[in-house]
Design a protein that fits this description.
Layout lengths: L15 H13 L3 H11 L5 H16 L2 H11 L4 E2 L2 E2 L13 H7 L3 H9 L14 H8 L2 H9 L14 H15 L9
Antiparallel strand pairs: 1-2
Helix pairs in contact: 1-2, 1-3, 3-4, 3-5, 5-6, 5-7, 7-8, 7-9
Bound molecules: zinc ion.
Zinc ion binds next to loops.
Amino acid sequence: MPGKRCRKCFTFEDSDEEIEDRLEVAAAEGHIECVRKIMKHMEPFGNHHWEYLTGAMFGACDGGYNDIIEMVLKVGVNIKSCPYGEWKCVDAQNSHLQSNIFRAISYNHIDTVKLLIRWNANVNHLTRDLWTPLYMSSHYGNNKIIKILLKAGARMDPVDIYGWTPLTIAANKVIAVRERCDIVPKVSY
Ligand SMILES: [Zn+2]
């Protein structure tokens, strides 16, 4: 008998759709063995490949599980297209066009951001609102990630669909903190 399997994540009695759904949860919770088994189970389904690998990447980036991310990237790097056009595992995106790096940034996983960049993640990836990863890190106020992104070639002054730049997002954050702390700014904005 192989080692104990995690029944919470999936069993082979589940439908393929259920298994596909559970892959993201297993990755987000760091169950690397479950992710490996699900990936192996889904392997013969050809075109499904990019879809479930996207789910696995999202989950692992949310949870900051770099060993899972590397495992998925090693499989996904060879898949070049999906039915909707070009697909890149490291830059897999959701319906808002936020890619993996946005998810890692929103959970402050610094090492995951570094790992994705090592795998050539696009640091100037555009969402539907024309946000780049630099907007996201400015929004969350993570200076370490801001530095990493800039060093990796992130553009300093893009403009989103509302006319905002990463700098105005960061400045707004300062104003919000000051208002919460009841500090009167010495300069006017
Ligand atoms: Zn599990």
